[in-house]
Amino acid sequence: MPAYAPFSSTETSAGPAADVPQLDVAGELLALLRDTGTEPRPDTQLEALTLAVAADLPVVLWGEPGIGKTAALTQLAAALDLPLTTVIASVHEPSDFSGLPIVGDDPAEQGVPMAPPDWAVRLVRAGRGLLFLDELSTAAPAVQAALLRLVLERRIGSLQLPSEVRIVAAANPRSSAADGWELSPPLANRFVHLQWTHDHEVVVRGLGGTWPRATLPRLAPERLPEAVDFARRAVCGLLSARPALVHRLPSNEARRGGPWPSPRTWDMTLSLIAFATAAGSSRDVLSALVRGTVGDGPGLELLAGLDRMDLPDPETLLADPAHAALPERGDLRQAVLDGVVAAVRNRPEKSRWDAAWALLVRALETGAPDLVVVPATTLASLRQEDWDVPASIEQLAGVVSLSRRADRAATRTAAAAQARR
Amino acid sequence: MTFRTPGTPGTPTAPVPLDLGKLFAARLHAARVRPYLATALFALHTVESRRVPTMAVDRHWRCYVSPAFVAATPVEELAGVWVHEISHLLRDHHGRGDRVARERGLTGPGERLRMNIAADCEINDDVFGEGLARPEGAVGPKALGLPEGELMEDYLRQFRLGPRTQSLAWLDCGSGADGLEREWDLGPDGSHGLSAQERDAVRFRVAQGITGRPGDAPKGWQRWAEEAFHPPQAWRELLGAAVRSAASGSGAGQDYSYGRPSRRSAGVPGAVLPSLRRRPPRVSVVIDTSGSVSDAELGSALLEVASISRAVGGRRDLVTVLSCDAAAGVVHPLCRAEGIPLVGGGGTDLRSGFTKALRARPRPDVVVVLTDGQTPWPAARPACRTVVGLFPRQHSRGSWSEDRPDDVPDSPPAWARTVVIGSPAGAR
Questions:
Q1: Which residue did the predictor score with more confidence, A358 or A67?
Q2: How many Å is the Cα radius of gyration of chain B?
Q3: Which end of chain A is more exposed for a tag (fewer CB within 10 A), N or C?
Q4: 3-state DSSP call for residue A112?
Q5: Which of A181, A301, A370 sits opposite B24 (nearest CB)?
Q6: What percentage of chain B exceeds 90 in pLDDT?
Q7: How confident is the model at residue B390 (pLDDT cuts 50, 70, 90)?
Q8: What distance in Å separates the CA atoms of residue A13 and residue A333, rounded to the nearest whole number?
Q9: Under a CB-based contact definition with an 8 Å cutoff, are residues A374 and A336 in contact?
């Protein structure tokens, strides 16, 4: 131990530790405790938050106190290369956000200016930054009212925040909030609501010394036009088929203060889909964003629509059945086969009918046979008198016997039920 | 769909090959008799496994199948097992099992077996019949001497492992049924699992199919479909939030005001600072004591309101309680929750209760009305915030009065925030 050499030469019996100031030892221990590593790990929540912030939409994080919302914001600020300003709303007064009235020499002549607080001035001078409004739900109502103006209009007193400043708010869910403030439906409609939960595994591993390092999404410049086109098709496709989803106020008490669909939130959703597409984010990330903007029901319908947009086009499959790539998942595969049969029904031609049979054979060779039964039955009924049965149909004999087997089971079940009566 | 065979060549008895034709014929039969479940049935990925006793699912929507079980079971019963296993996944039994385990501190494999049995009871009482055969050995609530039609969480409270469940010890529907990982599970990284978003999408598609054609599905499935993505919330939380937000709105509670300068003003010459003023909210509870509301319901709701108003800073003497039937009773301050005489019975007219509550000086900030809704309401919005705790009633009885036989009770008006009391508390 070279550090203690001067002492150890003279006093060996008492030990060197006796002379080291206690606070230095404490500092050493703290340094050891803080010496933690990181590992890359996908983080859906953080990725969703990053995209929403990048899209410049107001975000409110809902989560129990003490689960790492602030830590996430620190990581986000580092990723976006923005200085982080944290303002804990509950310890501020409304004047800190709406500005202090300063009485001058001649109020009648000059008016009473509303002076902004120092952190706002610094933020404006820096021109960019990430403003984190913590503990939104435990602040007094007047403070919240002042804060909402800041979030929605970016104004603090007479000061206008530059557009490079991004704002994120955090709130506790009403089950744990001490004085239970909640958003009114018009306000809730302006936010992207993200639920913030902790991952048990991450916390245990982090306390053990290894915290996750999220790899954050990067927008790919070459994908931008494609992303906008995709987002417009997705939202317009859904809303033209389901006009009732365009605007629906939450009707019952349980859904108050949460996300709900309106033209404004659909517009936000459109941006979010475009951002998620340009960043190549997973469906899980997009799901969190969309459901947090328009609500669960409309959000899930939109996601279901996106799944259908991903399926191969029936016309492409019919054009080249030999090299068709059918989805692995059974329910999607059946949706594709049904689509192919529907396409043949819409424009019945002998060549298309034959191609559809070839596709069914291919589906049988590469997957479960019970999926083919219904499309095969429907396709057989589309036959016109002068069409010869293609040779490939013999390979579907197994499907027919499978179908018969199920029929027999149905008959036996009915008979057994009859016997019990 | 490809099949995965675990590398177990050294099994002592000659292994039976998995009869895929039979398994898929059974799935086809299941999808024909339960068309609304077809999407979910086809989304399930089949994995051959010689370690599962029968058929088991994991939380990533894989279905592990024992070849010996398929060989020994008739097609129609296999169809029943398919529907049974998919029901575990659709009803999120693994997630609910985890939640119950956390809430009630249940640990160990014995508790997970109980969860599996309770989940089976929830499923088996209404999925079979109507063209679907009941598989041999399917455990139902009747076998355990329990009532039908309840949820897994309720069944879990009502039985223990004992002689009656001895024969069920082999029962194992996998981690998809109770949340406990099995040694045969392929885990989140294995192939062909469904991601959380894909699982939600399939469940949503099935729920939509059921609500779209409600005639086809039995009651249990309809209830599931309605609540799958909008679980009922605990009324205590909702009532609490409603009362709190009414009590902390402008004009009540603790807030900033420019009415008196802040003590900080001295430090900032020239600036006018608001100061924090504390005005505890006055809450007036109007209780409908007509014959149709039970004392137990009233008692629990009243205690809830009292504790909420205390939590928002109200003092006991600021909460007043007023019992009301056709005529309003006397206003009591809430000194002891149990000491308030709830006089009344017979017909209801809450309008007199409102009048009486609002006539109090100083005026209340919030009026909380606890009622079954079988009453006429004030025509105009009263001069303070109103929260209605509504006890749901199936039939419109109790309000009918001999003098006014045509009087149909209205639902609570739009200016009041209405919370339905007594709906199942966070069942899933």
A1: A358
A2: 29
A3: C
A4: coil
A5: A370
A6: 7
A7: confident
A8: 80
A9: no
Contact, A44 vs A174, CB < 8 A? no
| A308 part of contact set with chain B, CB < 8 Å | no
Give the length of chain B: 428
Q: Is B419 near chain A, with CB under 8 Å? A: yes
Rounded mean pLDDT, B410-418? 76
- The C-alpha torsion from A263 through A266 and A268 to A274, rounded to 10°, is -140
Nearest-angstrom CA–CA distance, A338 and A170: 46
CB atoms within 10 A of CB B428: 17
Tell me if residue A376 falls in helix, strand or coil: helix
Give the residue on B whose Cα is nearest the Cα of A144: B255
Indicate which of B76, B189, B279, B385 best probes the interface with A, i.e. most A CBs within 10 Å of its own CB. Answer: B76
Global pTM reads 0.76
- The pLDDT score that the predictor gives to residue A233 is 93
Asked if A183 and B246 touch (Cβ cutoff 8 Å), the reply is no
3-state class of B414 per DSSP?
A: coil
H runs (alpha helix) in B322-364: 350-359
Contacts of B71 (CB under 8 A, 6+ apart): B16, B19, B22
* Portion 392-421 of A in contact with B at CB < 8 A: 398, 401-403, 405-406, 408-410, 412-414, 416-417
Q: Give the gap in angstroms from C-alpha A16 to the nearest C-alpha of chain B.
A: 49
B427 and chain A in contact, CB less than 8 A: no
pLDDT in tens, B261-295: 666 666 666 666 666 666 667 778 888 776 556 66
- 8 Å CB contact of A103 and B27: no
- Amino acid identity at A378: T
Summary mean pLDDT of chain A: 83
Asked if B210 and B229 touch (Cβ cutoff 8 Å), the reply is no
**pLDDT(A322) > 70:** yes
| Shortest CA distance from A113: residue in chain B | B271
Q: How confident is the model at residue B247 (pLDDT cuts 50, 70, 90)?
A: low
Whether the CB-CB separation of A375 and A345 falls below 8 Å is answered with no
Predicted pLDDT of residue B238: 73
Q: What are phi and psi of A85, to 5 degrees?
A: -115, 115
Testing the interface with A: which of B18, B46, B191, B197 to mutate, by most A Cβ within 10 A? B197
A64 against B7, higher pLDDT: A64
Distance from CA of B321 to the nearest CA of A (A): 22
Query: What region, left, alpha or beta, does residue B135 occupy, with left being phi > 0 and alpha being psi -120 to 50 degrees?
Result: beta
Q: Which residue has the higher pLDDT, A71 or B244?
A: A71
pLDDT at B336: 46
DSSP letter string over A30-54?
A: HHHHH--EEEE---HHHHHHHHHHH
ipTM: 0.75
Q: Is the pLDDT of residue B313 over 70?
A: no
State mean pLDDT over A146-161. 82
B283-288 vs B275-279, strand pairing mode = unpaired
Cβ–Cβ gap B202/A100 under 8 Å: no
Are A181 and B248 inside 8 Å of each other by CB? yes
With a cut of 60, say whether residue B397 has pLDDT above it: no
